[in-house]
Amino acid sequence: MRTTVEFDQDTAKAVEQLRQELGIGVSQAVNELIRRGLLPRPDAPPYRQRTRASGIRIDVSNVAAALEELEGVEAR
């Protein structure tokens, strides 16, 4: 299929870099980059919440009061 495509500066740079690395034409480089983008990505590692003792105890049953205690009245 033939079509006209305008590349942004960063994508044009990627096409040109791959073209030079592999010694291929523009169409082949574009197709290769598209194929790479279609590959499944590995799952991200699970998020792990890190905690540490702050030395204070906050009652979170009243969120507004807890925020005021932690951030101060000026944070409103």
Produce the secondary structure layout:
Elements: H1 9-22, H2 26-38, H3 63-71
Helix pairs in contact: 1-2
The residue fraction in helices comes out at 40-55%
Quote the distance from N terminus to C terminus.
58 Å
Beta strand % = under 5%
In DSSP terms (H or I, runs of 4 or more residues), the helix count works out at 3
Q: Low-confidence stretches at least 5 residues in length (pLDDT < 50)? A: none
Radius of gyration: 26 Å
Structural class: mainly alpha
Record field, number of beta strands = 0
Quick one: overall form?
Answer: elongated
Biggest sheet character: none
Order of SSEs: HHH
Mean pLDDT: 90
What would your notes on this structure say?
This protein is an all-alpha fold. The protein has a domain at 9-38. Helix content is 47%, strand content 0%. It is built from 3 helices and no strands. It has helices spanning 9-22, 26-38, 63-71. Helix 1 packs across helix 2. The termini are far apart.
Q: Features of this protein?
A:
single chain, 76 residues, mainly alpha, 3 helices
Quick summary:
Helix content is 47%, strand content 0%. By secondary structure, it is an all-alpha fold.
